[in-house]
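Hey,
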Amino acid sequence: MLDLKQFGYIETEPTPDNLIPGRVMELQREQYTIITEYGEVTAVLKGSFYHNAEMREDFPCVGDFVFLQYNDDGPSLIVRLLPRRSKFSRADFSGHAAGYAKTILEQVVAANFDFVFIVTSLNKDFKVSRITRYLTQARQSGGQAVSVLTKADLVEDVEAPVSAVQKAAPGIPVHAVSAHTGVGLNTLDDYLLPGKTVVFLGMSGVGKSSLLNVLMGQEAMTVNTIREADSRGRHTTTHRQLFMLPSGAMVIDTPGMRELGLFNADGGISVGFADVEELFTRCRFSDCGHRTEPGCAVIAALADGTLTREQWDTYLAQKQENKFVDDKASYLSDKRTWHKDLAKWSRQMKKNGKIRN
């Protein structure tokens, strides 16, 4: 039988009778591929998962550990989602632009990982601000964020972009690598250890699939070309999937995300912009709006250059976006609760004969 410890499983509670543990390796539509002691099995969700269909964060995702009823003659049945030690979430606007979203839900992209590789290409589309957005959400995840700058062979001086990321995100490891030439790949060895899980995050065309292929030592993923005009790529990965590397480490590859919707990211923003929020404590007034108030430490820092305009604008943009998402999600949650309470009251009144059909 297969030892699930190879796949990062740590038993935190006894396995119930007639159930077995497993880890989600792949999700396509509503069909799961689960690795178990019997090998890979196909599984579907038990109906109880759909009773709270709006609570999508409770649905298993790639990397999750679950208890399931094993069936050797058809799909097995996922009965329970086990507690997550880490997760990467984004705001899901259900296909609408943020300003017009009717529904905002938490979309869990990956779970139970040790490291978050924020993969960015050193091509014409390279932007430090995009990396800081991913870092904000990664800090909420419970995993260690690592900035991986791919396609290092495209630039003559990799130190400039590396320094720019280090300046914008102090304390975050930054590695410049090339899947084409092999430069810098050995610097990732400290993360790719047996039993450890890494999640790849980044936009389309940044080289996630190429990097995965090199680490796998085979063509695990198809590699698409990118547009010359803007260095943007097409989606190579169409669904989330967990791969076992020859080193014994695991990689969760995710489809490229053109936009990362921040979700419940106040903590991540505070960590990433601790130096900015520390300025607030030095303002003359506790309710300072940091606009024209006398004795404002933020205005003074902007004037003397210790706080850059780009850093301040990025902080304000992330705080504004996160507030919008939190307020909208809270409103929708309260609305759903009110409708449920109303329906429950109506059923009770009908049962007591106080309301006629």
